[in-house]
Amino acid sequence: MTEIARLAAETExxxxxxQTLDALEEARLAVLGKKGWLSAAMKELGALSPEDRKTRAxxxxxxxxxxxxxxxxxxxxxxxxxxxxRLKAETLDMTLPLxxxxxxxxxxxxxxxVIDEITEIFAAMGFSxxxxxxxxxxxxxxTALNIPPxxxxxxxxxxxxxxxxxxxxxxxxxxxxxxxxxxxxxxxxPPPYRIIVPGRTYRSxxxxxxxxxxxxxxxxxxxxxxxxxxxxxxxxxxxxxFFETDKVKMRFRPSYFPFTEPSAEVDINCSRDGGVxxxxxxxxxxxxxxxxxxxxxxxxxxxxxxNEWQGFAFGMGIDRIAMLKYGIPDLRSFFDAxxxxxxxxxxVPLDIPTLGQGVAR
Length: 361
Ligand code: PHE
Description:
This is Phenylalanine--tRNA ligase alpha subunit. This protein is α+β, with helices and mostly antiparallel strands. The chain is 40% helix and 21% strand. The chain is built from 12 helices and 11 strands. It has helices at residues 2-17, 21-32, 37-43, 50-89, 102-105, 110-124, 138-141, 180-188, 228-243, 296-301, 318-326, 339-345; strands at residues 128-129, 135-137, 161-165, 170-174, 193-202, 213-223, 250-257, 260-271, 278-279, 284-294, 310-317. Strands 1, 5, 6, 7, 8, 9, 10 and 11 form an 8-stranded mixed beta sheet that branches. A 3-stranded antiparallel beta sheet has the order 2-4-3. Helix 1 (2-17) runs parallel beside helix 4.
């Protein structure tokens, strides 16, 4: 019996110190396995006298019960610890953002986004989109717009001149504005027209608000009995929709363009309080576009009779109003192709371009 007591004590300590379920199983087999010491002791019972067998069997069964209970208890402790460790190792922080999938990683450039917004607004007013070439001839970019050679307005525009073309040495330029598409439209087919022209334009200029390539959107409406009220109505409607506020105030300021008469530059109100520019608030003014009634001379250059047809035109810097709407401070950064910049200022492609994402947020 002392031998059994010794073995039982050994087993208890092995069970108590087992650190893994495997080690515990090993300890169990050493007692209760086919070759375990308790199983061996049980086998020896048959050789005893009936009296001794009874006492001995009772003792062995007590030992067996105790050992089994200890094994069970230790097993529960180790199993709980294993679950605990696994939970710790597999913890998920549910507050972390989802990893981006490939199609969510790309961004729409603010210029593309703003072109989408502009076309959406004008499409709702019945305008369609027209386009023209970036490499333009002198006639479409200047002469037909009532800017003859030697006219001082040509110097206003820091033109990029290209090598002359053809036998007659036609002057070629990178278009300095989208207005030549007015000419192409009017010479391309009969009125009425109601078009907008988003596109690239070029001038030799470079600072925080100017880049040699930039974007404009031109507008042209030609019909019978079009007047300045239509111009004002369309541009007012546009500004409210684009800047997403009915509060935006507009100022039509007399101006000069050779291709419009009369001409007006349009300012919107803004505040610069605390160095932050806010559109539609405050009493400062910010110029956003040039406009006017199409000059009869331009209609004549394009083969239209000014007594029959009138209309208005406007031209607006797309990058400029993108900067205003989305608070982007430096125009040059638009064209740096810096992915960190695009990640910050760009738009998620699967978000449908809407007017509900701008200054109102
Ligand atoms: N083309 C002019 C510019 O680039 C803008 C403009 C367009 C003005 C149409 C009047 C009418 O500054």
